[in-house]
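quick one, 418 residues, struct below
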Amino acid sequence: MRYSSIFTCTLLVVLLATASSVMAQSKPLRVFILAGQSNMEGHAKVETFDYIGDDPATAPLLKEMRGADGKPTVCDHVWISYLTGRFDGSANGEGIGKLTAGFGARGAKPTEDGGKIGPEFTFGLTMDAALKEPVLIIKTAWGGRSLNTEFRPPSAGPYEFNEARLAQMQKQGKDIAAEKAAKAKETGRFYRYMVEHVKKVLADPKRVCPAYDPAAGYEIAGFVWLQGFNDLVDGNTYPTGADGKTRDYTKYGEWLADFIRDVRRDLSAPKMPFVIGVLGVGGLKAEGNTVAFQKAMTAPSLLPEFKGNVIAVPTAPFWAEELAAIDEKRGKINAMAATLKNKSKNGPNKDGTMSDADQKEYLKKYEAEVISPAEAELWKRGASNAGYHYLGCAKTFALMGRAFAEATLTMLKDQGRR
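---
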């Protein structure tokens, strides 16, 4: 009897463990959508990872991003489908696999590791650690795309040229009918690419995520939007406001609210947590148009209908100030190069006697005066792109990705879905 009891207890434990395992596996697959333009693509080279470890506050994050072998971490339970291509949408292609570094900007080679990261890497790492269950990220991103045109949501209606722009085009002798037709062709094109790709992936999730259980299904658990630079600099769509200095970006906020409503409708996810990555190029010292644009980006999150299911996450705090200071000096060097080339009257080559070799030598000496060896080394260690791409700093993108994931997890918890 004693042995029989022991056998019965052991069998019960095994059955309970098996049942528990089956229940764990039967959870719907968590699906997160990431979309936007070049900064969602991500232009931070893997070579800038070491810079993350220089700061004691972010050194632990770097440990999460690297395995014991020193190579970028490969997520245990996170897979990704990444639709991207050239900025004009040509050469679109899909990169798939377990999430790791390399799913950043890929340009005309969308199926190949680009050696860069965007926010997707630490977003996935954070989800992997928090959920400990299969996760699928669907990322769609292209450089140079605006919300007012290419990502324009259906509810925003057709793009309408304002009177000032129409008058300008007429003065320039442009064919207004042709201009309108070209704009109409582009309007909403990348919104449609995005929605179509998400639906394609979700029609057969197992193609991308082998851990998908068809019996359990999936749930769209979040959406992250990181975009804005093309709208920020678009003076044709967003005219100067009442103060005569900064542009009026009110329409951006309205269109982004339309975008949230439309994407939830088109993906049948009415309460899908939505994170707005508020453009932060220039950091906390930004002024004028940038601040006005940030307010417009944030506006949808303040609407009563989006309370608790839309969060605006500022990215300006993640801007690398020390690298930006060096970038300003690099700007001086570029300006001097233009001065030499253009034989500016107040420049050292005003008489045009400097050869290309002489100009190169002059610039080399000038750079040594402007940028110290320590600053040059710091730049090489932490930056890999221009300011509008957050200086291509992996630390910045890593902090953004983690913040986006944490905001999403907060909304899921508040909705009782975690």
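The CA atoms of residues 127 and 405 lie 7 Å apart.
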